[in-house]
UniProtKB/TrEMBL annotation, chain A:
Keywords assigned by UniProt, alphabetized: Amino-acid biosynthesis, Arginine biosynthesis, ATP-binding, Glutamine amidotransferase, Ligase, Nucleotide-binding, Pyrimidine biosynthesis
Function: Small subunit of the glutamine-dependent carbamoyl phosphate synthetase (CPSase). CPSase catalyzes the formation of carbamoyl phosphate from the ammonia moiety of glutamine, carbonate, and phosphate donated by ATP, constituting the first step of 2 biosynthetic pathways, one leading to arginine and/or urea and the other to pyrimidine nucleotides. The small subunit (glutamine amidotransferase) binds and cleaves glutamine to supply the large subunit with the substrate ammonia.
GO BP term, example: 'de novo' pyrimidine nucleobase biosynthetic process
Record region (CPSase): 1-172
Subunit structure: Composed of two chains; the small (or glutamine) chain promotes the hydrolysis of glutamine to ammonia, which is used by the large (or ammonia) chain to synthesize carbamoyl phosphate. Tetramer of heterodimers (alpha,beta)4.
Protein name, as recorded: Carbamoyl phosphate synthase small chain
Automatic annotation (TrEMBL), chain B:
Organism of origin: Cohnella pontilimi
Listed name of the protein: Carbamoyl phosphate synthase large chain
UniProt-listed Enzyme Commission number(s): 6.3.4.16, 6.3.5.5
This protein's domain notes: The large subunit is composed of 2 ATP-grasp domains that are involved in binding the 2 ATP molecules needed for carbamoyl phosphate synthesis. The N-terminal ATP-grasp domain (referred to as the carboxyphosphate synthetic component) catalyzes the ATP-dependent phosphorylation of hydrogencarbonate to carboxyphosphate and the subsequent nucleophilic attack by ammonia to form a carbamate intermediate.
Residue numbers binding ATP 2: R717, R756, E762, G787, V788, H789, S790, Q830, E842
Molecular function terms from GO: ATP binding; carbamoyl-phosphate synthase (ammonia) activity; carbamoyl-phosphate synthase (glutamine-hydrolyzing) activity; metal ion binding
Gene: carB
Domain ATP-grasp intervals: 133-327, 681-871
Pfam families attached to this UniProt entry: CPSase_L_D1, CPSase_L_D2, CPSase_L_D3, MGS
GO biological process, one term: 'de novo' UMP biosynthetic process
Family stated for the protein in its record: Belongs to the CarB family.
Sites where the protein binds Mg(2+) 1: Q284, E298
Length: 383, 1073
């Protein structure tokens, strides 16, 4: 007989289902993802750090877990909710089961609850916190624990790399600031031959300058962008100096650095089917999304930012660019995984931007610059 | 207003008659398209030869032409109507082929008609194998090694170079007609020879077999702004090798990881972009289960059967969107009609699993080859929705109406191991059940996988169902937990009761369906209904489209309005086709018009009735007692209407009534009185109405005695039949005994009817009655005499050869019967005219196959009136009076259409058993012209000269000679074998003699094969065994596309038509001396 698990929501709704994955209890923001495939990428996406993730597709575990599809070294989710956990996977790449993965990382799972009902509750009332447990606590006890649990604000620090590391390549040097990056971003950059240096979220502007990047890639990441003010400060310093491309949390941080504001969405966008309209061309792209915050539309007005993309459904901002500097950002995930590859052209656009930036700011021969600086002569461009 | 301002008038081409491979899905698509275009203020002109469709209702388009879909007639309509654009992508392969023909003939250019949606070169690139492969090479999309051949030898040479097995695909054919998998040279020669003949351009693709791989399909849409989306992907349970129309399909795919899903998605988008399609497109892939290797199998640059399935599976109306895109809209500006607040430019996401199972005609064609391959054989399909695969597939199984209500096939336990292995290896229509059987025998999953190549995931679920059956069997008492778990896996109360009986004995508790039901209700286990909303609940939706499942939250919003439930007719099968969906839809509309809420229950994804816009609420559920009862308990309707859903709905009337449900319209007692043979006989006797002598028997001895007493030939059939199933004319004791042994299982519960067989003219009447007044919209006369099923006969309205007296007799009898039965709604009566007297053969207390045809030709909205009558209106209030509706100046014929080419080993002879899959209508001011249109529309080629091969049975010779003489006079050459040739010569005609099969080559069959004859006239000599010459001649004719006529009545009608249409060429009279 499979053990019981329960999920209590802030509004008092209690779901009772079956336990899978690890034993225990955890608190998190309950969110839902509407992707049919991609549960492994979802649960290993650091942007879900601290969240209890519900998959709206009812059958999860169908194709197992494979070493190759992780979007980070380890999952950071606080719980996994499915209608039905399929214990027997079938796919040529499957190495072990979802249940095994959750156990390995101590993540509590619950299955066999009405996940559509849960989704509708979240849709109607907005994202709320929940407590997922496999224990026998009394209901009041659960309520107390849920009420007492502190809000998590350090998700970026938890998921970002603590050390600088490099992923060498032959072409442009990109510094990837890791706020909780998905592997997909690194994959897309290295696929294009970039020489990528991944740096922690709190790397300073000077430390970045020391790496002599051609461009700066801002990664996705979990939580509220306002919880990482140091990142915003760093970006402000770097703005205009290097071409910048921001993704998801990176997009929000870029917006904040440029003076715009962000706000929380009622229940966020999480899935692989979101339509985004590119305003310039009028083209609509299907995108992969995972965000609970968005850039406030009215806050863009007084800034040097221009809205380039909007969500075709709720019209929220999905893309920005700087009017003067070579910098742009998107709220969605051009690196896909999970989701459609339709937007990977944005990485090409970033590299084009870097090349264009170089063309417009031609470097003097390096040995000349070096010689001048050794002689103590100031470079004219630095005046 | 449409984005493209140049477009004001649009011609839409329908798909013509229902044949295997092209069914009701195109009525759904066409109806949606017409509505979508009219919404935009465009003038819509429609051409379709199929009267049994909603799309050909006059309110669907500004002008509806029910005319043959061929170059001659479509060109004429184009010249008459001068449309600005032509939308060819919603009429299946027929529409697409017609567009190509029109373009090639220069008609479109001459008349300045713009091709919308898909351009000619895209159609050619997708359809022409060579161009297609070239395009795939350019796009770097892998296709299996293949060669285009135009001769058998080329095929053999190529196969030698890549090795067997190879797949043969003829170019430009429907549902894979003429294709197949060849494992040897001999097989290859046969299939290719056939394929080349079927292909309109004489071309076949010989392809390396990728059988055994996963088959995955993507439904893609694109607009003129190059926005592309995937509406849905689907995975076939049956691996590559079985035609996708014959495969069990699930949506969405289940065994693909995101990487694989996205890889194939990207490929689909690349292809639709390269083809520049503005609308919908379907891409089929084969995916290696052990690597990322995939192949593109096929691309359909149009709306298809799969897109209808995808529309119903997701709620996303593909055809409607395709029509809007074709007139210039882009996806991002069309509102998603499901949510009403988001846009069509997104990808639907599901939070349930959909299963489609095809419905095959093998219950009727017992002699047919049941093996499934690249040629589609199914006539229809069912779809089911569940939150688990087990729930979904078990619902689909009980929707099939094949005498099976769970994964258990009668007689499967008796199959020996060797046969089971063989049948698992080579798929047939019952493989799903045989997989379950193998699990019941304890076969290992791996073993079954090795044999079937079905993915482990699906097998595991089937295994789980079988294992859970054991749990139910083993439990001494039925626990709450087990019951709930069983319901969540899709087990019915009946299945649970049966399983408990098997495991615990009949005396144990909970071994009766009612008891399980009672216990279940006590426990509060009732299903909840979830909405199909395209977005997995992310957005609020208002689609009234629901499915049941056993979970917590019920999403059906309570409504105070009075409700009426209409039961649909389930999957399309021979004998119960789209005509019933037509009536169902009209009933729903009439109910809504009358101010009630119309609720529909149906499980057929192809139809208009399961478009969620049709009714106030659509429950996509099995038409199975338990599922229907659950909906009734949810909705609490005033009553249920059963008379439009064919035999499917009629059969539910009794159990529903027993459960206290009110049946609206004709009472259950009256239904039974008409349906039950004995009661019907008594009724007719009481009313003093003549009927062929006959009786109901329950034993073989009784049958022989009765037959002898009546005198042979006699007509035999089981009671409660559908489409004349297992009905036969037998001429002797031996034949009768053979019939009793093979065709029916006789017992007191399943009696057999034996009637004297009267070879007279058949007529048919549909009537509407409100309990008081009987309105008869028309009488139809059948061309073929009794002995040919009414559904397979050419029907003519108004009758051309009936005396006023006969008509009056038919009208009087109809009125009498309808009143006696206190009919409220529709009734259909079939008669035979014998010695100037009208005899009643059959009374059907429900909507019939002829309702759409008759409604259209008489302009009497029959199903609508019937529904109003059911709702309590009186015909007199509606302005109708009793009796026969006045005939009009037009003559209309309904010509049956068959799918024999797709069904090997089925005898094309017309018999009392129905064989046709569809119908067309021909209509004109003169009978001959109407018939010509009907025959042409049905696909018959009617050359004005040529050769007729005649082989007729001795009993028919005299009659045949007279008719053939007529053809002879018209200048046709006659070819005949021995006896028939002698008779023709004796009658003074020149005949080319040809060898019988036994007389060596070249023989009659060689002549047919080499295209030396335009018509074959062959009447049945007794015995249906395939080795009989007649059978081989008929099959050869069908397979070679030669017109094969097996009823002399049809031949005579054809002759009269040719005579009437022919200008007479007579020499000038000599001067008077």
């Amino acid at each position: 007989m499979q053990a019981q698990a329960r999920l209590l929501l802030e509004d008092g709704t209690l779901f009772t289902g079956l336990a899978f994955g690890a034993q225990g209890a955890s608190v998190g923001e309950v969110v839902f993802n509407t992707g049919i495939t991609g549960y492994q990428e979802v649960l290993s996406d650091p942007s879900y750090c601290g969240q209890i993730v519900t998959m709206t597709f009812p059958l999860i575990g169908n194709y197992g877990i494979t070493r190759d599809d992780f979007e980070s070294i380890r999952p950071y989710i606080h719980g996994f909710v499915v209608r039905r956990h399929e214990p027997v996977p079938s796919n040529w790449r499957a190495q072990y089961t979802l249940d095994h993965l959750l156990k390995e990382y101590g993540i509590v799972g619950i299955s066999d609850i009405d996940t559509r009902m849960l989704t509708r509750i979240i849709r109607q009332h907005g994202t709320m916190r929940g407590l997922l447990t496999t224990g026998n606590e009394r209901a009041e006890e659960l309520r107390e624990r849920l009420g007492a649990a502190p809000l998590m604000r350090d998700q970026v620090a938890r998921t970002s790399t603590p050390h600088v590391f490099s992923s060498p390549g032959e072409r442009e040097r990109i510094v990837l600031i890791d706020y909780g990056a998905k592997s997909g971003i690194l994959r897309e950059l290295t696929k294009r031959g970039c020489d990528v240096v991944v740096v922690p979220h709190n790397t300073t502007a000077d430390e970045i300058r020391r790496l002599h990047p051609d461009g700066i890639q801002l990664s996705n990441g979990p939580g509220d962008p306002k919880d990482v003010p140091h990142a915003v400060r760093t970006l402000r310093e770097l703005l205009g100096e290097y071409p910048i491309f921001g993704i998801c949390l990176g997009h929000q941080l870029f917006a904040l650095a440029c003076g715009a504001d962000t706000e929380k969405l009622k229940f966020g966008h999480r899935g692989g089917n979101h339509p985004v309209k590119e305003l310039e061309s009028g083209r609509c792209y299907i995108t992969s999304q995972n965000h609970g915050y968005t850039v406030k539309e009215e806050s863009v007005a007084g800034t040097e930012l221009e809205v380039t993309h909007i969500n075709n459904n709720d019209k929220t901002i999905e893309g920005l660019k700087h009017k003067r500097y070579p910098a742009f950002s998107v709220q969605y995930h051009p690196e896909a995984a999970p989701g459609p590859f339709d937007n990977s052209y944005l990485f090409d656009r970033f590299l084009d931007m870097i090349r264009e930036h170089k063309r417009l700011n031609p470097e003097r021969p390096r040995q000349a610059v070096l010689a001048e600086s050794l002689r103590g002569e100031l470079h004219y461009a630095q005046k | 207003m449409p984005k493209n301002k140049e477009l004001k008038k649009i011609l839409v081409i329908g798909s013509g008659p229902i044949v295997i491979g092209q069914a009701a899905e195109f009525d759904y698509a066409g109806t949606q398209a017409c509505q979508a275009l009219k919404e935009e203020g465009l003038e819509v002109v429609l051409i379709n030869s199929n009267p049994a469709t909603i799309m050909t209702d006059t309110n669907m388009a500004d002008k509806v032409y029910i005319e043959p879909i061929n170059l001659e007639f479509v060109s004429q309509i184009i010249r008459q109507e001068r449309p600005d654009g032509l939308l060819p992508t919603l009429g299946g392969q027929t529409g697409l082929n017609m567009a190509v023909e029109l373009a090639r003939a220069g008609v479109l250019e001459q008349e300045g008609v713009k091709l919308l949606g898909t351009q000619l070169n895209a159609i050619e690139q997708a359809e022409d194998r060579d161009l297609f492969r070239e395009l795939m090479r350019e796009l770097e999309q892998p296709v299996p090694e293949s060669a285009i051949v135009t001769s058998v030898q080329e095929a053999v040479d190529f196969a030698d170079s890549i090795g067997y097995p190879v797949i043969v695909r003829p170019a430009y054919t429907l549902g894979g007609t003429g294709g197949g998998i060849a494992g040897s040279e001999e097989e290859l020669r046969e299939i290719v020879a056939n394929g080349i003949r079927y292909s309109p351009i004489g071309q076949c693709l010989i392809e390396k077999s990728i059988a055994g791989m996963k088959e995955v399909e993507y439904e893609v849409m694109r607009d003129a702004n190059d926005n592309c989306i995937v509406v849905c992907n689907m995975e076939n349970l049956d691996p590559v090798g079985v035609h996708t129309g014959d495969s069990i399909v699930v949506a969405p795919s289940q065994t693909l990881s995101d990487r694989e899903y996205q890889m194939l998605r990207s490929a689909s988008l690349k292809i639709i972009r390269a083809l520049n399609i503005e609308g919908g497109c379907n891409v089929q892939f084969a995916l290696d289960p052990q690597s990322y290797q995939y192949y593109v199998i096929e691309v359909n640059p149009r709306v298809s059967r799969s897109s209808a399935l995808a529309s119903k599976a997701t709620g996303y109306p593909i055809a409607k969107m395709a029509a809007k895109i074709a007139v210039g809209y882009t996806l991002d500006e069309i509102v998603n009609p499901v949510t009403g607040q988001t846009y069509a430019c997104f990808e639907p996401t599901l939070d349930y699993i959909v299963t489609k199972i095809p419905r095959w005609p093998f219950d009727k064609f017992t002699a047919a080859n049941r093996k499934l391959g690249t040629q589609m054989k199914a006539t229809g399909e069912v779809m089911a929705i569940g939150r688990t695969f087990e729930e979904s597939i078990q619902k689909a199984v009980r929707s099939l109406e094949i005498g099976v209500h769970r994964l258990l096939l009668k007689g499967a336990a008796e199959i020996d191991g060797e046969t089971l292995t063989a049948r698992l290896a080579k798929a047939d229509d019952e493989r799903l059940f045989l997989v379950a059987e193998a699990f019941r025998r304890g076969w290992a999953l791996q073993q079954i996988q090795d044999i079937t190549n079905i993915d482990w995931w699906f097998l595991d679920k089937i295994d789980r169902i079988v294992r859970f059956e054991d749990e139910i069997r083993r439990e001494p008492g039925l626990t709450r937990e087990t019951l709930y778990a069983a319901k969540r896996l899709g087990f019915t109360d009946r299945a649970i009761a049966e399983l408990r009986k098997e495991g615990q004995g009949a005396s144990a508790a909970m071994t009766k369906e009612q008891d399980v039901r009672q216990y279940r209700l006590q426990q509060g286990f009732i299903p909840v209904y979830k909405m199909v909303d395209t977005c997995a609940a992310e957005f609020e939706a208002s689609t009234p489209y629901y499915y049941s499942t056993y979970e917590t939250e019920n999403e059906v919003l309570p409504s105070d309005k009075q409700k009426i439930i209409v039961l649909g007719s389930g999957p399309i099968r021979i004998g119960q086709g789209i005509e019933f969906d037509y009536s169902t839809v009209h009933a729903v509309w009439a109910i809504r018009n009358a101010g009630y809420e119309a609720v529909i229950i149906n499980n057929n994804p192809e139809t208009v009735s399961t478009d969620f816009n049709t009714s106030d609420r659509l429950y996509f559920e099995p038409l199975f007692f338990e599922d229907v009862m659950n909906v009734i308990e949810q909705e609490k309707p005033i009553g249920v209407i059963v008379q439009f859903g064919g035999q499917t709905a009629i059969n539910l009337a009794a159990p529903l009534a027993r459960a206290g449900v009110r049946i609206l319209g004709t009472s259950l007692e009256s239904i039974d009185e008409a349906e039950d043979r004995k009661k019907c006989e008594a009724l007719l006797r009481k009313l003093n109405i003549a009927q062929p002598k006959g009786s109901t028997v329950t034993t073989v001895d009784e049958a022989v005695g009765t037959a002898q007493q009546l005198g042979y030939p006699v007509l035999v059939r089981p009671s409660y039949v559908l489409g004349g199933r297992a009905m036969e004319i037998v001429y002797s004791d031996e034949e009768l005994l053979a019939y009793m042994k093979e065709a029916v299982q006789i017992n007191p519960e399943h009696p057999v009817l034996i009637d004297r067989y009267m070879l007279g003219k058949e007529i048919e009447v549909d009537a509407i009655c409100d309990g008081e007044t009987v309105l008869i919209p028309g009488i139809m006369e059948h061309v073929e005499r009794a002995g040919v099923h009414s559904g397979d006969s050419i029907a003519v309205y108004p009758p051309q050869s009936l005396s006023e007296d006969i008509k009056k007799q038919a009208v009087d009898i109809t009125i009498k019967i309808a009143k006696e039965l206190k009919t409220v709604g529709l009734v259909n009566i079939q008669f035979v005219v014998w010695n100037d007297q009208v005899f009643v053969i059959e009374v059907n207390p429900r909507s019939s196959r002829t309702v759409p045809f008759l409604s259209k030709v008489t302009s009497v909205p029959m199903a609508n009136l019937a529904t109003q009558a059911i709702l309590g209106k009186k015909l007199s209030e509606l302005g109708y009076t009793e009796g026969l509706w006045p005939e009009n100046e037009y003559v209309a014929v309904k010509v049956p259409v068959f799918s024999f080419a797709k069904l090997r080993r089925v005898d094309p002879t017309l018999t009392p058993e129905m064989k046709s899959t569809g119908e067309v209508m021909g209509r004109d001011r003169h009978y001959a012209k109407a018939l010509y249109k009907g025959l042409i529309g049905s696909g018959m080629k009617i050359p004005t000269g040529g050769s007729i091969i005649a082989t007729v049975a001795d009993k028919d010779k005299e009659e045949a000679i007279a008719i053939l003489k007529g053809f002879y006079r018209l200048g046709y050459k006659l070819i005949a074998t021995g006896g028939t040739a002698d008779a023709l010569e004796a009658a003074g005609m020149k005949v080319r003699r040809v060898n019988k099969l036994s007389e060596g080559s070249p023989n009659i069959v060689d002549l047919i094969r080499t295209g030396q004859a335009q018509f074959v006239v062959n009447t049945l000599t007794k015995g249906k065994a395939p080795e009989r010459d007649g059978f081989r001649i008929r099959r050869e004719a069908v397979e070679n596309g030669v017109v094969c006529l097996t009823s002399l009545d049809t031949v005579r009608a054809l002759l009269h038509m040719l005579e009437a249409l022919r200008f007479s060429s007579a020499p000038m009279p000599a001067f008077q001396a």
